[in-house]
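Appendix C: a fully annotated inverse folding record. The material below is reproduced so that readers can follow the format used throughout the book. The structure is listed first as tokens, followed by the designed sequence.
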């Protein structure tokens, strides 16, 4: 994995982002009507329980902006206002005590309005995320660089992708990625002209290649932290896969300071998936990691049933343990020995491992209970060591 990109550190409601040693932060966005304060708080509380560290809410009108103080009073994590089209909503959100703003340079393109928002954010000492999104880019020529007069009447969707430009040998083509980066740089320059540098940046698209190339292109040009995401990535199943690929590539490159896994489903799944991505790259420790055998014709025990039972059990486990559930003698003993706790089945029985050492042999009927006892014992030992 590449060395992590060092950025300027910013703070969102006390949560530090970027810098040298701060962790990659997991955030989400509410799915309901922000104006419904009770429902919004209830959803955010469930996300807090999953480990969500920053929450964003849509602010489509003034009633939603006015709900911010009541929502903030009922939650424990920083609140970001998501603003589109109407700069007045950003000003109202700042006045109402929001912890940060997300602005879309694709639909708030008046520099004077952006300056007014920036002055308010600067006075309130809150950061701004410049949220560039492929689905709402400004027309070419209306904002950012235009590559010596290139203009497209119908906007960005007529621009070639990088793949298309390479395929036709047009190395000088002004691509969607170029336009995303140029759009971000335009708004960055507006903020910097006002001596404002509490900035976070995102460059999101549904297409993984477009997203990855946009972040890679902007990274050497600015010192600000990146918020990563694959926008509108899909359902819990397909969206988690697409997001894991895109975010995984960027995080492995050393890019990214906060993430959101955008899923069409229960918002708690966004947080769970986000942590699993970070855990797989050893960027965060939260709860257990389970190594599970997929089972095959060599398995002599019902490893799938055992795996499903263990997965349900460890949902309540908060300790960062590595747990291996294996079904045969091929990889089972090796993987189980490498884990904090492991079980390797065979011939109607199973061997339990702790830190590479065999602790007991149990019958197949007792496998789950034996493994659960080992997990609880490991939790207790870790808690005692940290006391």
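Designed amino acids, in order:
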């Amino acid at each position: 994995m590449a060395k992590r990109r060092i950025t300027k550190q910013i703070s969102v409601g006390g949560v530090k982002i970027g810098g040298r040693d701060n962790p990659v932060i997991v955030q989400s966005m509410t799915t309901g009507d922000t104006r419904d304060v009770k429902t919004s708080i209830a959803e955010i509380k469930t996300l807090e329980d999953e480990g969500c560290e920053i929450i964003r809410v849509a602010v489509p009108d003034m009633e939603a902006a006015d709900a911010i103080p009541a929502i903030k009073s009922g939650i424990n994590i920083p609140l970001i206002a998501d603003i589109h089209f109407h700069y007045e909503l950003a000003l109202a959100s700042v006045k109402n005590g929001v912890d940060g703003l997300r602005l879309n340079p694709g639909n708030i393109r008046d520099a004077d309005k952006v300056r007014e928002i920036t002055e308010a954010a600067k006075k309130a000492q809150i950061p701004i995320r410049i949220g560039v999104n492929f689905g709402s880019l400004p027309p070419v020529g209306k904002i950012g660089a235009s590559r010596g007069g290139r203009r497209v009447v119908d906007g960005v969707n007529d621009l070639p992708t990088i793949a298309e430009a390479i395929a036709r040998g047009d190395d000088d083509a002004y691509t969607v990625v170029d336009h995303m980066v140029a759009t971000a740089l335009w708004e960055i320059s507006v903020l910097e002209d006002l001596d404002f540098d509490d900035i976070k940046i995102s460059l999101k698209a549904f297409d993984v290649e477009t997203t990855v190339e946009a972040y890679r292109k902007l990274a050497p040009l600015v010192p600000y932290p990146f918020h990563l995401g694959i926008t509108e990535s899909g359902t819990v199943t397909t969206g988690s896969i697409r997001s894991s690929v895109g975010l995984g590539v960027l995080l492995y490159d050393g890019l990214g300071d906060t993430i959101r896994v955008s899923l069409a489903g229960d918002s708690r799944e966004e947080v769970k998936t986000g942590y699993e991505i970070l855990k797989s790259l050893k960027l965060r420790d939260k709860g257990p990691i389970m190594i599970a055998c997929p089972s095959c014709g060599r398995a002599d025990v019902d490893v799938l049933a055992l795996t499903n039972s263990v997965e349900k059990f460890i949902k309540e486990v908060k300790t960062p343990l590595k747990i291996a559930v294996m079904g045969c003698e091929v990889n089972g003993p090796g993987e189980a020995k490498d884990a904090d706790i492991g079980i390797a089945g065979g011939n109607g029985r199973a061997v339990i491992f702790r830190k590479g050492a065999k602790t007991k042999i149990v019958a197949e009927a007792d496998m789950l209970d034996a493994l659960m006892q080992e997990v609880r014992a490991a939790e207790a030992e870790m808690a005692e060591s940290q006391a």
